[in-house]
């Protein structure tokens, strides 16, 4: 009889809990979809293949750089809209400069942070959010987060950090973790020299994943997704191009960025002299004109002239890089620029630039290989799991809702919420209690 009562108790308790699902999001930069086969056999990753969802075809947004794509994940907007169009940004109208969180003004909400990220949306909706190791913790949003841990040198490599994250999952609905150690190693040594199966960074990361997965198995309310927004390619020394060697610097006012792409601001009257539509003066590097209607940038880049995008942008062929040596005409200064072996930032449809999406938890299917997915759709996925009335985005939940178990398939429902005469579209997920979850919990009472 106790056995029957326990089942009923668990059933009703679970019905009350399952409607409020928690989400742990791990942003692990550097794990390219094209390299997944090299480490997918490791225990922490193997779980996603046998008991979760995985996709090696996650399409980032251009430019395929960490900060722009992290903000796309957070807002569901493309870089041209949310404003982070590079690791460094120069506003031609105001003179403001963004230096990849190396300047105090980088955290000024009035200058750079026009669109609220999902963790602020969640906090406003009374869904407590916690951030770990994001430089964005320095931005003063309201309401503020109760947990916002600044970046450290260890991230998920530190067992104590993992314990803090697990504790946060008990009191917060959205927990986001930024892990950069794998990306930093790839930047230093390159993709080809990264021995994934024997890498200390990969080993520590898989151990952290196993601890987090163990928590998910014990609970009915916790789900985890791992997102690596984009990949990297190697750039050998002989493939580096110096901008100063090919273009007369007396025509150039300033250049912004380095590596895969660079913005060029010529002096007045020198723009067309710097731009050659059919022949580039720099081998393996193309100069694009960004002006509306007459520009020649690929349309899927969503990268056109604005106060933060100048008339000219140069993009290197994958495997090549472009740098400026003139200290007076480069942001950031060449003396402060590290020339990495592994680079990102190239065409977002180039195979080596595709990222990785992994999911595990009571809401997700088991053993599903997901086809192509878009980074902007992950934003809608997060909003749905947390049942948030998120602002409009470029994402589409129907592109990715097949990752849910059948008993938890999301239903798209648009609600017009009147708020100061403004209508806000809302995406909700309605969850029926899955039988397999009940059986799993019942097992605990046997």
UniProtKB/TrEMBL annotation:
InterPro entries documented for this protein: Alkaline_phosphatase_core_sf, Phosphodiest/P_Trfase
Source taxon at top rank: Eukaryota
Organism annotation: Parascaris univalens (Nematode worm)
Gene Ontology molecular function: glycerophosphocholine cholinephosphodiesterase activity; metal ion binding
Catalytic activity from the UniProt record: 1-hexadecanoyl-sn-glycero-3-phosphocholine + H2O = 1-hexadecanoyl-sn-glycerol + phosphocholine + H(+); 1-(9Z-octadecenoyl)-sn-glycero-3-phosphocholine + H2O = 1-(9Z-octadecenoyl)-sn-glycerol + phosphocholine + H(+); a 1-acyl-sn-glycero-3-phosphocholine + H2O = a 1-acyl-sn-glycerol + phosphocholine + H(+); 1-(9Z,12Z)-octadecadienoyl-sn-glycero-3-phosphocholine + H2O = 1-(9Z,12Z-octadecadienoyl)-sn-glycerol + phosphocholine + H(+)
Name the record gives this protein: glycerophosphocholine cholinephosphodiesterase
Compartments (UniProt record): Cell membrane
Signal peptide: 1-20
UniProt family annotation: Belongs to the nucleotide pyrophosphatase/phosphodiesterase family.
Pfam families given in the database record: Phosphodiest
Listed GO CC annotations: plasma membrane; side of membrane
Cofactor field: Zn(2+)
Purpose: Choline-specific glycerophosphodiesterase that hydrolyzes glycerophosphocholine (GPC) and lysophosphatidylcholine (LPC) and contributes to supplying choline to the cells. Has a preference for LPC with short (12:0 and 14:0) or polyunsaturated (18:2 and 20:4) fatty acids. In vitro, hydrolyzes only choline-containing lysophospholipids, such as sphingosylphosphorylcholine (SPC), platelet-activating factor (PAF) and lysoPAF, but not other lysophospholipids.
Enzyme Commission number: 3.1.4.38
Keyword rRNA-binding: no
UniProt main location, coarse: membrane
